[in-house]
Every structure is written in structure tokens, then in C-alpha cells.
Amino acid sequence: MDTILIIISIILLIGGLIGCFLPIIPGPPLSFLALILLELTSYSPFSIETLIIFAILTIAVTIVDYIIPIIGTKFTGGTKNGNIGAIIGLVIGFFVFPIIGIIIGPFIGAIIGEVFGGKKFEEAVKIAMGSLMGLLAGTFMKLALAIAMTISFILKIIKIFDII
Prior knowledge:
Layout: H1 2-19, H2 27-39, H3 48-75, H4 80-96, H5 101-116, H6 121-161
């Protein structure tokens, strides 16, 4: 049973890292679930404190990831139109250009949304930059946490199996 849990954990860790870039996949929660599954093995390698800290960070990063692009947009003078445009751009970008569209889609969508809302093009670009910076900051936070959990997992596996 331990082997199955470890294999599923590895798959979840990979999914967690991928999920940091794809908004459809919840990156840090998947990575945290991998740690929980490793904890359920007979090895039980993590302390309760470690799991609580990673749980708190996972919840915080997940919440902030949804809020930070809105803050970036608002900080640069954006409106609801820009936020709606960014969301529509994200969805369209994801399906049209799966990797790069996730970055370009919200940017272009925010510009279009703000222009349709009455903003001048230059102002709309500034607002879209705020949204983009928020998106990139959220992605960086998710990736940093997912990498930290992956490293923690790998170090525990090395210790469990006395690999080094």
C-alpha cells in the first residue's frame, strides 16, 4: 500500500507543479495532498507542525492568487470591465494558445474590457500591465510553495529509503 501511496503522491506533485501555470489545476493544493498521502504511509515522515505550516501556506497562497490580479488591476485604475475582460481573455487564451495564452489572454482581455468601458488605449494598457503583474506574482507564489513542498517530499523519500 505504501508504494501505491508514494506513486500517487509523485503524480500529485507533478500535477501541482503544472498547476502553478494552468489556472484550471489547483497547484499548491495538489502538492499538499501529495504530502498528506506520504504521511499516510507507514513511514509517516512529517511532523504535525510541518503539515500545519504547509496547510496554512497552501490556503493563504490559494486565496491570494485569486485576489492579487484584481488588486493589480485596481491599483493601476482598472474597473470591473478590465477584470471581466481579463477573465474572458484567460479562458480564450487557454484554449487558443494553451501555454502562452494564459499570460497573453488576460492582458489583451483587460485592454479590450477597459477600452469598451471608455478608457483610452494607453490607460487600458497600463491597467492590463497591473493585471499581468498580479498574475505573474500569483504564479511565482504558487510555484515557490509547490517547489518547497516538492523538495520537502524528495528529502523525506531520500531519508526513508536511505538513498544517499
